Each structure stands twice: as structure tokens, then as C-alpha cells.
């Protein structure tokens, strides 16, 4: 009890003092990069949508595949990573009483390593020497500089991960027996970022000598498998970042209480343990993997659905309870009591709602036979625009309306809130139209990652055109959404009136039972995760290496 | 934990397990599993390796055909395949360069075709018509042109 009281006072002190300028500068820099990435990445996305709708022919110097590679890298890697890090570092700074000077230094070193890495990776993309997509499957080989850039990005991410571990460990040593919700999510995310990027780091280190020509051939299947052990973990890391905001901050914004801390932690632990193995469902129709291994992996992928279904219950329970406390009535009539005009609630709420079809679509496409129908079609593109483009990014947008003023020492004005509500609506309509059309045309057979093509005026391909037109309409709305959002962030960062913005961590229920200490046993969770990853990957990887076919030389096919 | 939540989680768990059981039944009892053939090949000597030294369409039974196919940037060999309606076609494929995808619109044919591996997939074409075949894994600057047709008469 004493500890809780002390914690409460420290919290008050933190709130009064706000974030220290040094810590604020870290988060501000990360957020500026993130929103610059969405501005450029969004514009590239619009170009693709226009091309795919058949209304814009891209010039040779700005070829579709170059644009697509840059779009993927900017949005999947830059936007998400920089937002996640800026957000969690602000959370750590707030809840752990400021970042340690050493950790601050690590955050800056990591920042510049990543920027340096991106510059190295982007130069060959612009020169047309790395149109390999963000998946860079060998034996397509980009210029070596592209891969060297990726190494720096991964090293930068590790720097940030270890910075977070050091800060949390230090705090725990001095605050035995206490629990902090946001740092628990941060631990989960950074543990996954580290372990999830290990396989891709190994892959890239193995590609570099091959790209230079020092070794002649590469094992195509091993590199592909290592990539997906990372690739799918990555998207789930962004998803976990989004749900951290749902569990920790959204309840405060609607004047409610947090969901049970224990159940929240079980969701985090389950996501950390079960995540990495999910990547294998990207290889369900690959040759060289037996059906029984694939079936085991379907199970491992679907297992991630369970914590998501726990989250779905938790969120709606929090909403209902809060709304009823405010006098909401009826079976569903209580929804009227929720603050729909507050963008900090509206955006993450729509993000959650989008995850209902998005999660269901994910279950569909990670299942053996159904994957065969959807694999590499536009369906998949529709799926990750629903998950990343709506569930994750709209949560990030919603968070920006309090996180940006918090770090800039300003306030969210009524006008910007209104702009945010409009932005949320524009974004929702744009994404629903675009991703809906993508899902549908994917089922009809239209492939992903392909510039506009009628396949020599084939009737089937021509019949896709009306659906593909929605990519241009959706893309245009989304570009308007990007401009509104970037303006809002710019305003809150530099123009809004000065003032105090709260860091809105919700409290637990008054009658909440204390969180058991066993949830903090990160060593055990990591061991379990490694155990599960080994179960999933040792057999296929050993098979790919021991029974490897002769390797492949590098190809530049663009 | 609230009783309603216990019910919800039990249903969730049951749903996922049910999904798995149906998938498993279809894959193993009904033989509807995804293409998973395991044989390896030297990707740099595809043209010299049987059966790919002689790609083409071969009739192997009544209403049964085998297609030996190589995929390379940005084409299928053989292309413009023709089979009678009602035929069961067994595709045996490999790639001579980068990773390709083999997809036939309006069917469930969808397989990755990778250098070093042989992919196999079977389909019965009951409906006459012209089926669009396309590569659905990005393979280079001409990827959007990598298409052909299967005509079922």
C-alpha cells in the first residue's frame, strides 16, 4: 500500500514537471521522422494506386517497382519503427521518472545509425539498383549498399532495445514490487524487436558477401525463411504497440479505468512467446516443406488469434463499464455516452473496429487451403492495409493528438481536434474503399506487386479494372488524410498555444487485485519463446540446409 | 475473471480449434493440402535435368495430362496450353532464375516456383474457357507481362 501511495505521488510530480527537455527532444525527433516518412510514403502510395487503376503511366525513371520498394520501406520500416520508438521512449521517460543519461545517449546513437542506414538503403533504390521490394528475396540481388544500410538499421533498433532494457532494469532495481503498465508493453515490444530482427540480421550478413560476389551462390529457401521469421514479427510488433495504447491510454481518455492488469500482461506475454513462429504462414504454398510442418505452423499462427480475442473482449468491456458509469443505458444504448467527438478516442476506436474484419481475414489467409486462394493476390495487400493502415496507423494518429503536444509543451486546440475528426473520417472512408476493393479483386485473382497490366487484353484481367479503380479513389482520399494529419502534427509540434498536456495513463479499478510478481519473469518468457521458435524452425531449417539444392547466383532482373 | 469473459474465451478457443480441425481434415483426409512437393534440382542446370530437358504437355491417361514447365523471366515454357474439358492436369514446375509464382485465375491453382525446388500442383478443368495464367511473385521489370493462358475446350 505504501508503495502504491509513493508511486502515486511520484506520478503527480511527473505530471507537474512534464517531460524533461532532453527526453522530449528524443521523442520529437523520432516523431518528425515518422511523419515525414508518411508524407513521402503516402505520396508514393498514391502514385501506385493511380498506376494500378490504369490512369497513370509512371515514367521510366520513376518505375512502379522502385516506387513500391520505397513505399514499403518508408511505411513498414521507417514510419512504424520511428513512431514506436518515439512513443515508448516518451512512455518510459514519463513512467520511470526520466531516461537515464546513458540511455538517452543510446537513443541518439540508435537514431543516427538508423538514419544513416536508411540513407544507405535509399540511394541504391533511387538509382534503380535495389528494386527488390522490402522482402528482397534472393536470388534477386540489390546493390550491396542496400544490405549494408539494412544492417545499420537493425543495429540502430538493437541500440534502442537495449536502452529500454537498461532503463527498465534500473527502475526495477530501485522499485521492487511495483508495476508499470506502459513499460511492460515496452519490454514486450523491444524483446520482440530484438529477437525478431535476429533472423533478418543473419540473413543480411549472409547476403552481403554474395551480393559482392565473394561467394557464388546462396541458399534461397534459408534466406526466405529467415526473412519471414522477421517480417511477420515486425507487423505484430506494430500491432502490439497499437494495443498498448488501447489498454493503457484510451481508458483514461474516456474517463474510465484500465482493464485487469494481470489479463493485460497475459496478452503481452502470449504475444511475445507466440509471435515469431507466425511468420511461417507466408510460406504455406512454398515447395520443399512438408504438409505436416505447414499444418503445425498454421496452428502456431492461429494461436496469436487468442490474445487478440482476449483484447476484443477487454476493450468493449472497458467501454461499456465506463459508459454505464456515466449513465449509459440499454443493451447497446450506452455507446452514446462515449466521447465520439474526441479524436483521441475516435481514431483508436475505429482502429479497433477495423481489426475485427482484419483479424478474421488474417485467420483466413494463414490457413493452408484458404491461403492457397489468397496468397500473393491483392487480397493480401487489402489485408495489411486494413491491419497496418487502419488498426495500427489510426491508433498512432489518435495517440499523436496527445503525444505530440505532450512532448512539445503545447496543447491540443479545439480546431485541431475537429481537423483530427475529419481526418479520421476521410482516412476511414479511403481505407475501407481501397482495402475492400483489394480484398475483392484479390479473390478474383488479381496479383499483388504488379504494375498495371491487362495481360495482353485478357478478358479476365480486364474484368478487374472496375475494382482497381477504387485504388485510385481510396489512394486520393488517403493522400488528403496524410496531408491533414501531417499538418495537425506540425501544428501541435510548433504552432499550438503553449501549455501542459497530460500523459494519459489510466488507473486500475479501485478494487483491483495486485498484479502477481511472476508476470515480470522476462527471462522465463524469453526461454519459452526461444523454445517455441526452436520447435517451429529447427526441423525445416535443418532440412533446408542439410538437403539443400545447389545454390543460386545473384540476378538483377529489373 | 467475469463469467461472460470465460464464455467468450471458451468460444474463442473452440472457434480456433474448430478451424484447425476442419483445416486438418481437409488437408489430410480430403487431400486438399497446399502444394508441398519436396524434390530439389540444380537451378543452374534446369535445361539439362530430366524432366525439364523436355518441357511440354504430355497425355498420360484418359483425360489426364502432365505439364512439365519451366518459369523464367518473364515467361512460361510451354505457354498457351490447350486441354479438353474435364481433364485433370498435373503441373510439374521449376524456376530457372528468381522466385516466381504460378497462379491460374478462377481456379485454386497457386504455387510458389523457386529456383532449386520442384513444385507440383494438380487441377481438374471442368468448365471450358480461357484461363489466365500469371506470375504472382514480383520477379523484375517485366513481371507484369509474365502471363499466358490455358484454353479448355
UniProtKB/TrEMBL annotation, chain A:
<keyword id="KW-0813">Transport</keyword>
<keyword id="KW-0472">Membrane</keyword>
<feature type="transmembrane region" description="Helical">
    <location>
        <begin position="182"/>
        <end position="208"/>
    </location>
</feature>
<feature type="transmembrane region" description="Helical">
    <location>
        <begin position="30"/>
        <end position="50"/>
    </location>
</feature>
<dbReference type="InterPro" id="IPR036927">
    <property type="entry name" value="Cyt_c_oxase-like_su1_sf"/>
</dbReference>
<feature type="transmembrane region" description="Helical">
    <location>
        <begin position="384"/>
        <end position="404"/>
    </location>
</feature>
<feature type="transmembrane region" description="Helical">
    <location>
        <begin position="262"/>
        <end position="284"/>
    </location>
</feature>
<feature type="transmembrane region" description="Helical">
    <location>
        <begin position="146"/>
        <end position="170"/>
    </location>
</feature>
<feature type="transmembrane region" description="Helical">
    <location>
        <begin position="296"/>
        <end position="319"/>
    </location>
</feature>
<feature type="transmembrane region" description="Helical">
    <location>
        <begin position="228"/>
        <end position="250"/>
    </location>
</feature>
<dbReference type="Pfam" id="PF00115">
    <property type="entry name" value="COX1"/>
</dbReference>
<keyword id="KW-0249">Electron transport</keyword>
<keyword id="KW-0812">Transmembrane</keyword>
<keyword id="KW-0679">Respiratory chain</keyword>
<feature type="transmembrane region" description="Helical">
    <location>
        <begin position="522"/>
        <end position="546"/>
    </location>
</feature>
<dbReference type="InterPro" id="IPR023616">
    <property type="entry name" value="Cyt_c_oxase-like_su1_dom"/>
</dbReference>
<dbReference type="InterPro" id="IPR000883">
    <property type="entry name" value="Cyt_C_Oxase_1"/>
</dbReference>
<feature type="transmembrane region" description="Helical">
    <location>
        <begin position="467"/>
        <end position="490"/>
    </location>
</feature>
<feature type="transmembrane region" description="Helical">
    <location>
        <begin position="425"/>
        <end position="447"/>
    </location>
</feature>
<feature type="domain" description="Cytochrome oxidase subunit I profile">
    <location>
        <begin position="3"/>
        <end position="490"/>
    </location>
</feature>
<feature type="transmembrane region" description="Helical">
    <location>
        <begin position="106"/>
        <end position="126"/>
    </location>
</feature>
<keyword id="KW-1133">Transmembrane helix</keyword>
UniProtKB/TrEMBL annotation, chain B:
<keyword id="KW-0472">Membrane</keyword>
<keyword id="KW-0186">Copper</keyword>
<dbReference type="InterPro" id="IPR034214">
    <property type="entry name" value="Ba3_CcO_II_C"/>
</dbReference>
<dbReference type="InterPro" id="IPR008972">
    <property type="entry name" value="Cupredoxin"/>
</dbReference>
<dbReference type="InterPro" id="IPR002429">
    <property type="entry name" value="CcO_II-like_C"/>
</dbReference>
<dbReference type="InterPro" id="IPR001505">
    <property type="entry name" value="Copper_CuA"/>
</dbReference>
<protein>
    <recommendedName>
        <fullName>Cytochrome aa3 subunit 2</fullName>
    </recommendedName>
</protein>
<dbReference type="Pfam" id="PF00116">
    <property type="entry name" value="COX2"/>
</dbReference>
<dbReference type="InterPro" id="IPR051403">
    <property type="entry name" value="NosZ/Cyto_c_oxidase_sub2"/>
</dbReference>
<feature type="transmembrane region" description="Helical">
    <location>
        <begin position="7"/>
        <end position="28"/>
    </location>
</feature>
<keyword id="KW-0812">Transmembrane</keyword>
<feature type="domain" description="Cytochrome oxidase subunit II copper A binding">
    <location>
        <begin position="47"/>
        <end position="153"/>
    </location>
</feature>
<comment type="function">
    <text>Subunits I and II form the functional core of the enzyme complex. Electrons originating in cytochrome c are transferred via heme a and Cu(A) to the binuclear center formed by heme a3 and Cu(B).</text>
</comment>
<keyword id="KW-1133">Transmembrane helix</keyword>
<keyword id="KW-0479">Metal-binding</keyword>
Amino acid at each position: 500500500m505504501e508503495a502504491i501511495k509513493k508511486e502515486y505521488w511520484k506520478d503527480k510530480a511527473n505530471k507537474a514537471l512534464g517531460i524533461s527537455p532532453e527526453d522530449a527532444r528524443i521523442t520529437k525527433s523520432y516523431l518528425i521522422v515518422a511523419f515525414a516518412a508518411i508524407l513521402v510514403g503516402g505520396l508514393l502510395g498514391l502514385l501506385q494506386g493511380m498506376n494500378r487503376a490504369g490512369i497513370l503511366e509512371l515514367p521510366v525513371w520513376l518505375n512502379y517497382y522502385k516506387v513500391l520498394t520505397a513505399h514499403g520501406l518508408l511505411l513498414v520500416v521507417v514510419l512504424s519503427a520511428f513512431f514506436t520508438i518515439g512513443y515508448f521512449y516518451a512512455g518510459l521517460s514519463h513512467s520511470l521518472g526520466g531516461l537515464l543519461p546513458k540511455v538517452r545517449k543510446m537513443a541518439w546513437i540508435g537514431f543516427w545509425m538508423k538514419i544513416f542506414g536508411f540513407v544507405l538503403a535509399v540511394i541504391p533504390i533511387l538509382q534503380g539498383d535495389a528494386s527488390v521490394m522490402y522482402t528482397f528475396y534472393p536470388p534477386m540481388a540489390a546493390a550491396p549498399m542496400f544490405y549494408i544500410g539494412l544492417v545499420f538499421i537493425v543495429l540502430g533498433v538493437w541500440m534502442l532495445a537495449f536502452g529500454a532494457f537498461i532503463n527498465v532494469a534500473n527502475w526495477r532495481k530501485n522499485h521492487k514490487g511495483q508495476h508499470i503498465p506502459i513499460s511492460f508493453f515496452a519490454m514486450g515490444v523491444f524483446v520482440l524487436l530484438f529477437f525478431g530482427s535476429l533472423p533478418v540480421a543473419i540473413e543480411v550478413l549472409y547476403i552481403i558477401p554474395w551480393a559482392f560476389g565473394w561467394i557464388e551462390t546462396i541458399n534461397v529457401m534459408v534466406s526466405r525463411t529467415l526473412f519471414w521469421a522477421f517480417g511477420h514479427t515486425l507487423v505484430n510488433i506494430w500491432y502490439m504497440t497499437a494495443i498498448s495504447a488501447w489498454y493503457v491510454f484510451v481508458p483514461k481518455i474516456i474517463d474510465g479505468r484500465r482493464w485487469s492488469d494481470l489479463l493485460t500482461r497475459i496478452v503481452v506475454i502470449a504475444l511475445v512467446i507466440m509471435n515469431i513462429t507466425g511468420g511461417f504462414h507466408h510460406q504455406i504454398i512454398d515447395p520443399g516443406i512438408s504438409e505436416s510442418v505447414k499444418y503445425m505452423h498454421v496452428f502456431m499462427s492461429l494461436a496469436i488469434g487468442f490474445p487478440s480475442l482476449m483484447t476484443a473482449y477487454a476493450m468493449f468491456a472497458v467501454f461499456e463499464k465506463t459508459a454505464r458509469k456515466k449513465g449509459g443505458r440499454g443493451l447497446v444504448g450506452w455507446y452514446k455516452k462515449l466521447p465520439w467527438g474526441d479524436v483521441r478516442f475516435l481514431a483508436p476506436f475505429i482502429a479497433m473496429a477495423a481489426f475485427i474484419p482484419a483479424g478474421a481475414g488474417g485467420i483466413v489467409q494463414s490457413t493452408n487451403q484458404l491461403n492457397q486462394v489468397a496468397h500473393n493476390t491483392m487480397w493480401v495487400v487489402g489485408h495489411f492495409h486494413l491491419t497496418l493502415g487502419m488498426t495500427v496507423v489510426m491508433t498512432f494518429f489518435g495517440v499523436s493528438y496527445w503525444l505530440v503536444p505532450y512532448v512539445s509543451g503545447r496543447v491540443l486546440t479545439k480546431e485541431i481536434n475537429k481537423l483530427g475528426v475529419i481526418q479520421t473520417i476521410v482516412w476511414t472512408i479511403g481505407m475501407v474503399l481501397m482495402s475492400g476493393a483489394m480484398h475483392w479483386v484479390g479473390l478474383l485473382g488479381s496479383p499483388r506487386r504488379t504494375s498495371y497490366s491487362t495481360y495482353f487484353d485478357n478478358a479476365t484481367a480486364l474484368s478487374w479494372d472496375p475494382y482497381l479503380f477504387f485504388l485510385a479513389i481510396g489512394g486520393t482520399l488517403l493522400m488528403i488524410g496524410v496531408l491533414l494529419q501531417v499538418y495537425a502534427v506540425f501544428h501541435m509540434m510548433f504552432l499550438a498555444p503553449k501549455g501542459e498536456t497530460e500523459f494519459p495513463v489510466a488507473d486500475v479499478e479501485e478494487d483491483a487485485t495486485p498484479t502477481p510478481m511472476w508476470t515480470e519473469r522476462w527471462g522465463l518468457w524469453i526461454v519459452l519463446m526461444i523454445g517455441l521458435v526452436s520447435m517451429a524452425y529447427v526441423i525445416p531449417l535443418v532440412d533446408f540446409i542439410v538437403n539443400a539444392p545447389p545454390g543460386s547466383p545473384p540476378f538483377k532482373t529489373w | 475473471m467475469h463469467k461472460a469473459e470465460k464464455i467468450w474465451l471458451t468460444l474463442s478457443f473452440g472457434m480456433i480449434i474448430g478451424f484447425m480441425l476442419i483445416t486438418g481434415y481437409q488437408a489430410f483426409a480430403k487431400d486438399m493440402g497446399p502444394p508441398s512437393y519436396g524434390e530439389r534440382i540444380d537451378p543452374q542446370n534446369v535445361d539439362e535435368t530430366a524432366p525439364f530437358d523436355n518441357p511440354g504437355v504430355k497425355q498420360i491417361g484418359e483425360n489426364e495430362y502432365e505439364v512439365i514447365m519451366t518459369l523464367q523471366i518473364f515467361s512460361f515454357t510451354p505457354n498457351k496450353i490447350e486441354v479438353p474439358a474435364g481433364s485433370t492436369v498435373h503441373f510439374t514446375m521449376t524456376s530457372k532464375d528468381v522466385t516466381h509464382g504460378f497462379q491460374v485465375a478462377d481456379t485454386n491453382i497457386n504455387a510458389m516456383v523457386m529456383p532449386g525446388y520442384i513444385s507440383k500442383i494438380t487441377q481438374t478443368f471442368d468448365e471450358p474457357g480461357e484461363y489466365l495464367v500469371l506470375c504472382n511473385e514480383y520477379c523484375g521489370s517485366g513481371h507484369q507481362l509474365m502471363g499466358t493462358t490455358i484454353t479448355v475446350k
